[in-house]
Amino acid sequence: MTPAPPEWRVESGLVDYDAALAAMEARAEAIRDGGAPELIWLLEHPPVYTAGTSAKEGDLVDPLRFPVRRAGRGGQFTYHGPGQRVGYVMLDLAARGKDIRRFVDALELWVIDTLAQLGVNSRQAAGRVGVWVDTPSGEAKIAALGVRVRRWVTFHGFAINVAPDLSHYAGIVPCGLPDYPVTSLGALGNPATVADVDAALRDSFDAFAARLGGGR
């Protein structure tokens, strides 16, 4: 059976990270136990460093710069802040094939399709989670991924750098990869806004859902 269309929620202001984490966990439980609809939640956070389950303490270079939160997702340290489109993806994989590797791959490809609509060529990289682009100074990460799956319901998701303050990444080793910088659409000279990214995400969703075996 094809899953019902997910709910889409787009926040207009900054959402506190702790509040978002609690809301995600509650919604994931409601999807599994109460039949709540799946949810695609698009938002921005105030500046915060978040640590995934593989985070190394030595990668937190400046622990006093911004709040630091344990996220419970996969991955290492990352930064969230204004000008970054965070997408929290709460889907029921029990209805979509129960394949976590396929889900992560499809999530990366969804971001790649989204950026292509905005005129940016990006790609996956073997052995490195996330989405990558070429810059004049070399390869850089433009979108980070970190997911958690509980009882086959996903939460957390992706973060696309639209036009954040990239200097804020100086307080961490992003994703534990000291040899790879981060970049953004703005740093690449692309004028796309967060609203443009949201529209492209919606336009690309059907292809993402099809890769999981679902659809609208």
Quick summary:
By secondary structure, the protein is an alpha+beta fold. The mean pLDDT is 95. It has helices at 17-34, 100-117, 194-212, and strands at residues 7-14, 39-44, 48-51, 68-70, 77-80, 84-90, 123-125, 128-135, 138-150, 153-161.
Give the C-level CATH assignment.
Answer: Alpha Beta
Look at the structure and give the mean pLDDT. 95
How is the quaternary structure best described? single chain
Number of alpha- plus pi-helical segments: 3
Structural class of the secondary elements? alpha+beta
Q: What CATH architecture do you see? A: 2-Layer Sandwich
Helix residue percentage:
25-40%
Question: How would you characterize the overall build of this protein?
Answer:
The chain is of the alpha+beta class. It has a single domain (7-212), classed as BirA Bifunctional Protein, domain 2. Helices cover 25% and strands 30% of the residues. The protein is built from 3 helices and 10 strands. The chain has helices at residues 17-34, 100-117, 194-212; strands at 7-14, 39-44, 48-51, 68-70, 77-80, 84-90, 123-125, 128-135, 138-150, 153-161. The strands form 2 sheets. Strands 1-2-6-10-9-8-7 form a 7-stranded mixed beta sheet, sandwiched between helices. It has a 3-stranded mixed beta sheet with strand order 4-3-5, with no helix packed on it. Helix 2 (100-117) runs antiparallel to helix 3 (194-212). The longest helix has 19 residues, at 194-212.
